[in-house]
């Protein structure tokens, strides 16, 4: 398999060097470009067509969030992970709203970075458990409004939502339910379509709001 092509966007040279040093030993990743601000990151995406952009949240010209929004508009296939020193749940929610697929804290252990990125790129990820917990508490406080109720789901779909809400990966769900991993992925896609949700993070929050957590 070809390595994942990565752009690192951070206005601090030492930060870019540190991120590169994490990725270079892993043959799954190839750093194809570096950007010093959000506008440069957007332009490099057009030129290099990476698989992944690691985007610092605070940069000159365009912030990481602004750049993420523009990248996702122009190149929706490119995955964006916001990098931050802040575990403020508001930043996480904003990143998701702007189209980011992930949110990494810069102070996480190197192995956690690599494992998270592998999970994200194989479309089997959630934010770190700590960040997910903060997100869930935020969503607990929101009004449900006209959101579709769980009774639109089949028993199997409800069961899968329970596991997603508990932070289980597709592999863990497939092992628990004794079904193929691809079957789990298909179920989750159908559930997202049915509930009109955009991604696993929103689905996990949905599970919390509707008390569908797996014990």
From TrEMBL:
Signal peptide range in chain numbering: none
Keywords: DNA-binding, Phosphoprotein, Transcription, Transcription regulation
UniProt keyword Iron present: no
PROSITE patterns in the record: HTH_LUXR_1 (PS00622), HTH_LUXR_2 (PS50043), RESPONSE_REGULATORY (PS50110)
Family annotation (CDD domains): LuxR_C_like, REC_NarL-like
GO biological process: phosphorelay signal transduction system; regulation of DNA-templated transcription
Claim: Transcription is one of the keywords in the record: yes
GO molecular function, one term: DNA binding
4-aspartylphosphate PTM sites in chain numbering: 56
Protein name stated in the entry: DNA-binding response regulator
Protein species of origin: Brevibacillus panacihumi
